[in-house]
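User: If only I could read backbone structure tokens as easily as an amino acid sequence. Those tokens are not coordinates but codes from a learned vocabulary of shapes. Could you go through the record with me and say what the backbone is doing? Here is the record:
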Amino acid sequence: MSGDLTLNLLIAVVTLAMIFLIPAAVFAGVLFKVGWDVFDRDYIYAYFSRGWMKSLNRNFQLLVILLTTLVTVLLDLNIAVLLGTIIFYLVQKLFKSFEITDVEAELEEGID
């Protein structure tokens, strides 16, 4: 009888320890899936296939994307968005001739 109690107690302890792993794993999986779906792969593909790497405008856009991603991973999403926004507006104000345009129309032309 005490053997059953010990076995049940052991199963409860092991199961309880594993229950804390399940939400973290599920949360990590959900975050990975959402990140994969949100990631703008068309822009990266167009950047290399259409020769956008020769454009200062496109290089700056990619730099802001990479900087925001890196700061998000290393620090915090709030800090990354704030930093990316500040850099974007500083460049717009300091370099009046540096015009950043939306590339969505160019991407839509090349997507079948």
